[in-house]
Give the backbone structure.
Amino acid sequence: MSRSPEEPTEGDRLHRRALIELPELALDSPVDPIIAAHVAGCADCQVELQSLRAVRDLARFGSVGGTARAGAAEPEALRPGPLVWDRISAELAAGPPVEPGRVEPDAGRRWSRRLPRRGLLAGLAAAAIVVAGVAGWTLGSRQGDSARARGQAVLAAQPGTVASAQGHAVMRPSHDGYQMTVTTTGLPAPTGYYEVWLYDPSAAKMVAIGTLGSDAQGSFTMPAGIDTQAYYVVDVSNQLYNGDPRHQTSVLRGTIRTG
Amino acid sequence: MTGTPIQAAGDEESEASRRRLAAAFAAGQESALRAAYDQYSGLVFRIALHSLGNRGDAEDVTQATFVSAWRGRDTYDPIRGSLAGWLVGIARRRTVDLLRAQARTQRELDAAGLEAGSVELADPAEHAVDAVVVADGLAELPPVQRRVLELAFFDDLSHPQIAAATGMPLGTVKSHVRRGMIRLRDRLEAAGVTLT
């Protein structure tokens, strides 16, 4: 045990050796007792060791959770769908959000200081028109609405339908309230029809806002005065033609996020 | 160690092109957003997908990540870190936010006695997402390095046991473990994960 003060050069040498051995220690492999003793008394080594143990723990946690070794899936399945780029272009072309995103510091607020050059703006606008056509938007009406929240929801497949079904809802202010546009893909032909609802989870209340067209999408005027803070879930249900107007089987659902 | 010079040259070249892309992105060059999307949308998407278990949500996170990144590019400093790491950091926070929102919705659905969504909840959302960042980093390591780390992490083999199992010299095993773990740690730190 050489715990007595050593020559600086000797201490440095030991420290360098310890740094090399730290991954072994992090994996609980036996190491030279001299190294172990140094690490035990060295604050720098302890910090380093702790971070390596965190990496080890996260790797093991991921493996238990079934997410690790994920490389086995189809490469195509591990890429976003082709429409995502269009959505990004459209969102950027539509301008900054009402409130700066709360995720990254200052995003959005800085937008005005660095407008993209003309070419990009034109390109993005063109892409926006394509997407707007798909989604049934009318971009023209958004001027002057900037004081009110807009939002969107990703709609995930529910147990009542096929797992590959999905959708997207966009809520935006219109001249007389809010407009909601819902687009879906992958839903099978309904046994009956598909209805779109706003759902208030805390009060367990639902309001039907319309039915999806045969093109699996629709644009709806939201009820005037509805509290969008409370009704923050969008639900699509399969309704049978049985005369019962109540909500039947959920097929898609998602939470509206604003900003 | 044969073939190292070629490998190193390739790395340098791609490192240089990564740096050019990062600088162009930070400078707001119009082509850089698309180039960054082409290069890194898969990475962002995988991390979101494996955390959220749902393509729709993962695409939403991917969209939000690139929109946020482009709008916030003034806050990205290429000197301080890679563009990939910065994007993963944004994606990670977006994913954690979404997991938390889903947990909240789920609780409220349960409380209302309605059918629950199909979302598998990750309890400590951050931990789950960070584990995916590690898993993805592991999958991208050179195959030999990855194999060595998998044996160490998941099969709990000691380094001499790994050497015996793979036929590699013990010193080589150790250096793979060391370099692999440090690469994974760098990746986490680039994404803004605090490891202590």
In short: The helical segments of chain B are 4-26, 30-52, 55-71, 83-111, 125-140, 143-153, 159-166, 170-190. The two ends of chain B are 34 Å apart (CA to CA). Chain B has eight helices and no strands. Residues 161 and 170 of chain B are 9 Å apart (CA to CA).
